[in-house]
Specification:
By secondary structure, this protein is α/β, with parallel strands linked by helices. It has two domains: 148 residues, 3-Layer(aba) Sandwich (D-Maltodextrin-Binding Protein, domain 2); 150 residues, Periplasmic binding protein-like II (D-Maltodextrin-Binding Protein, domain 2). Helices cover 38% and strands 15% of the residues. The chain has 14 helices and nine strands. Strands 1, 2, 3, 4, 5, 6, 7, 8 and 9 form a nine-stranded mixed β-sheet that branches. Helix 6 crosses helix 14. The longest helix is centred in the N-terminal third of the chain and has 15 residues. The chain starts with 24 loop residues before the first strand and ends in a 5-residue tail after the last helix.
Length: 336
């Protein structure tokens, strides 16, 4: 391994990585913190002898891969959110993979039809509802825009990738005009200006600032396992709203093979492993996400939140609506 490659890098640090084609080694650019996937890569290395080097990039993956061109050492990009995955694809920085193992273990709606990216786990965008003040929580996303929730909703910024994906899904189900009306209704029902991360929304419910909040399911697992946040988690119920005529909005963590991967064959082996039931169970226990391989189950904690029917629209269709979603978010001045 080049001496300039580091397993973990601060998001603000410049990353200087040379690209020698060393056998039995894979380099991954990840927007997920390395400790979240270290148990997986350790298991892969133990099973195969192939070392996995992870460079943590909080942002700037597209810019870095573009600048490196065919000299990049990166074999794979691992990230969260369909828009981020699709952004790497649209920038021309990936290559398609046709693979029977990936096709068998990853449902069609959670992978790119052209094989440019593959989902690895899912998380649902849910309502965290106060146990004391929201005994009858909204059963649909549409209900969030009704007068019953005036001044009672907390959420993070409208321009955050998670919100943009939900608005994109709303456009898919409602059409652009009705989605804009819905988004305006949600804004009108906010208890405060959008701010903070998903855990901050649950804290706001606990503090009585709002009665319901939008967030991703896995944050509940993180709060339950963080002593100072257990009270926040205990103050809410996890509610799985649906779109009228659809299911609960889900997003993914996913992976893509870079266009100039220097260790392509070994990188595909890692992709196969990450999609396998064995790896999916590690994901489920470590990250509180939903595994997607056949015959795999969520952790006991995640299962305790209840079951839901995921929206079955292909996430590529959602990703293509990102630009329209951002336009609507700006038009209603959601964060204003």
């Amino acid at each position: 391994m080049s001496a300039t490659f580091r397993t973990t890098l601060l998001a603000t640090a410049a990353i200087a990585i040379t690209a020698p084609a060393i056998a039995q080694e894979i380099n991954v650019y990840s927007t997920r913190q390395p400790e979240l996937i270290q148990p997986l890569t350790d298991k892969f290395t133990a099973d195969t002898g192939i070392k996995v080097n992870i460079a943590f990039l909080k942002k700037g993956v597209i810019e870095k891969l573009t600048a490196e061109g065919d000299r990049t050492p990166a074999d794979l990009v691992l990230t969260v959110d369909i828009a981020r995955l699709n952004g790497v694809v649209e920038a021309g920085l990936t290559q398609p993979v046709t693979n029977d193992v990936l096709s068998a273990n990853i449902p069609a709606d959670l992978r790119d039809p052209a094989g440019e990216w593959f989902g690895l786990t899912t998380r649902a965008r849910v309502v965290f509802a106060s146990k004391d003040r929201a005994a009858t929580p909204p059963a649909t996303y549409e209900a969030l825009a009704t007068p019953a929730w005036k001044g009672r909703i907390c959420t993070r910024s409208g321009t955050h990738a998670y919100t943009v994906a939900l608005v994109s899904a709303a456009i898919h189900h409602m059409g652009e005009a009705d989605a804009k009306t819905w988004l305006q209704g949600v804004k009108d029902n906010l208890a405060r200006k959008p701010q903070g991360n998903d855990r901050a929304q649950v804290k706001a419910v606990w503090a009585g600032e709002c009665d319901v909040a939008l967030g991703n399911t896995y944050y509940m697992g993180k709060m339950v396992n963080t002593p100072e946040q257990v009270a926040w988690a205990d103050s809410v119920n996890v509610v799985f709203p649906t779109f009228e005529g659809g299911g609960t909005h889900v997003n993914v963590s996913g992976i893509a093979l870079t266009k100039h991967a220097p260790h392509k064959a070994d990188a595909i082996k890692l992709m196969e492993f990450l999609a396998s039931p064995a790896a999916q169970e590690i994901y489920a226990e470590q990250n509180f996400e939903y595994p997607i391989a056949p015959d795999t189950k969520p952790s006991e904690l995640v299962a305790s939140w209840g079951t839901f029917t995921a929206d079955n629209v292909n996430l590529m269709d959602i990703a293509k609506l990102r630009g329209t979603a951002l336009k609507l978010i700006e038009e209603v001045d959601f964060d204003g």
